[in-house]
What we know:
Keywords: Membrane, Transmembrane, Transmembrane helix. InterPro entries: DUF2061_membrane (IPR018638). By secondary structure, the chain is mainly α. It has one domain. It is built from 2 helices and no strands.
Amino acid sequence: MDTTKRTFLKALTWQLLGLVTMTALSYPHTGSLYSALALASSASASGFLAFFVHEKVWNKVPWGRAVQTEKAPH
Length: 74
């Protein structure tokens, strides 16, 4: 299970990547770097929150996790 700090950092780095990508994709459509950044920032902020909550919920779901057993020392 990930710690809250790890989940937060994963969400942050994912959204930074999304911010750059969304800005690059929206710039040709808006013709304005400011508008492209505004659109990308709002999408990134909502995506960050959604990802963070999604990860925390899934961390509580035991389904599909492999159980790791400790091996006895030889």
